[in-house]
């Protein structure tokens, strides 16, 4: 595929709207400097430096859509707490937060990563603490969320479902959204990113599981065996009835499966010395959704997503990729 096609696609991204529906998470990064080893236990003592809160999950996907020049309509539920406030405040200016439902009855999910390092060295993640908002969502908030999700979907060129098992989105809910879009004569691409129940979603446009998620779903081990990979990709296609399945394989690149067509293997872009995979799946899914919203083929969208994924894993923490970075990557690659 010619690099001119990829560059033309990047130019077509601005102005495209993606509805991002699902679990928004507050990604908190606490930075410190290693001071000494504690006398109380064999652990490091860190001198606190700073704290940063950025959107994770659906929020990160929405920020990536916006960073690449598109517009995102974020439909999610967050608490009326400080993490929820900081999450919303850190959304990109092209992310519309009006479809975010805030509720006082349920807190915001927070993933806290403690990072440590010296003054002249890169900080490494030491531990992660998850505070999951797994309480029930009240009926009023759930109804408001569905209304917000439909409002966003009806105004979008593509829909991205972000299922982090937070109890907000489900296969029946997504099926209902799809029926309502068809009833309104607004059949846009619907993509799903589901961590734990991929096989329960059916009849959508595409999904982008990573290799470990595929292995867990099917009970197989892929490693470097391309025959196992081929069978796994085709089985995911058959069970989910998706139009396309893009399996991300880390340093091994990506593999795109489409019914009735040969598998497309895409080598990794950039170095295989990965700095941080935090949020990389959100970036890949956001790129695929925005590319399909702009009218790209599955292969062209996957190749652009490969560039985006290769760029974002070179960054620390939950990060985004800009259109300018994508253009530079494509030009350097060719």
Helix segment tally: 10
The assembly state of the depicted protein chains is: single chain
Q: Which band does the percent of strand residues land in?
A: 25-35%
Main sheet makeup: 10 strands, mixed
Which structural class matches the secondary elements? alpha/beta
Q: How far from one another are the termini? A: 11 Å
SSE string:
HEEEHEHEEEEHEHEEHHEEEHHH
The low-confidence runs, each spanning 5 or more residues with pLDDT under 50, are: none
Number of strands: 14
Please estimate the helix content: 25-40%
What Rg is obtained from the alpha carbons, in whole angstroms? 20 Å
Kindly report the average pLDDT value: 92
Query: What form results from the Cα inertia axes?
Result: globular
Overview of this protein structure:
With 334 residues, this protein is of the alpha/beta class. The protein contains 10 helices and 14 strands. It has helices spanning 3-12, 58-67, 82-89, 139-154, 171-183, 211-218, 226-240, 280-293, 298-312, 323-333; strands at residues 17-22, 24-37, 44-57, 71-79, 95-96, 100-103, 110-117, 124-131, 158-163, 190-194, 206-207, 244-248, 254-257, 264-266. The strands form 2 sheets. Strands 1, 4, 5, 6, 9, 10, 11, 12, 13 and 14 form a 10-stranded mixed beta sheet that branches. Strand 13 and strand 14 (264-266) form a beta hairpin. The longest helix has 16 residues, at 139-154. The chain starts with a helix and ends with a helix.
């Amino acid at each position: 595929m010619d690099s001119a096609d990829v560059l033309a696609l990047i130019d077509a991204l601005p102005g495209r709207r993606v509805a991002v529906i699902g679990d928004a998470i507050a990604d908190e990064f606490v930075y410190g400097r290693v001071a000494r080893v504690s006398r109380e236990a064999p652990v490091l003592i860190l001198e606190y430096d700073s704290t940063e809160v950025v959107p994770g999950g659906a929020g990160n996907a929405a920020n990536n859509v916006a960073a690449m020049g598109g517009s995102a309509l974020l439909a999610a539920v967050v608490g009326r707490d400080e993490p929820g406030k900081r999450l919303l405040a850190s959304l990109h200016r092209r992310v519309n937060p009006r479809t975010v439902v805030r509720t006082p009855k349920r807190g915001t999910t927070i993933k806290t990563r403690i990072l440590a390092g010296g003054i002249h060295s890169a900080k490494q993640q030491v531990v992660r603490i998850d505070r999951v908002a797994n309480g029930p969502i009240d009926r009023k908030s759930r109804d408001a969320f569905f209304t917000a999700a439909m409002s966003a979907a009806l105004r979008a060129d593509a829909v991205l479902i972000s299922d982090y098992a937070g109890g907000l989105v489900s296969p029946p809910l997504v099926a209902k959204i799809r029926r309502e879009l068809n009833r309104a004569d607004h059949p846009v691409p619907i993509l799903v990113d589901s961590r734990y129940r991929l096989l329960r979603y059916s009849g959508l446009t595409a999904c982008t599981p990573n290799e470990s998620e595929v292995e867990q779903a099917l009970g197989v081990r892929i490693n470097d065996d391309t025959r196992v990979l081929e069978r796994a990709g085709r089985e995911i296609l058959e069970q989910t009835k998706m139009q396309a399945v893009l399996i991300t394989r880390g340093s091994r690149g990506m593999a795109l499966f489409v019914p009735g067509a040969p598998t497309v293997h895409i080598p990794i872009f950039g170095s295989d010395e990965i700095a941080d995979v935090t949020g990389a799946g959100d970036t890949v899914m956001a790129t695929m959704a925005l590319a399909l919203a702009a009218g790209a083929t599955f292969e062209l969208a996957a190749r652009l997503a490969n560039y985006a994924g290769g760029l974002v894993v070179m960054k620390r923490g939950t990060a985004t990729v800009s259109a300018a970075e994508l253009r530079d990557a494509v030009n350097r690659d060719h």
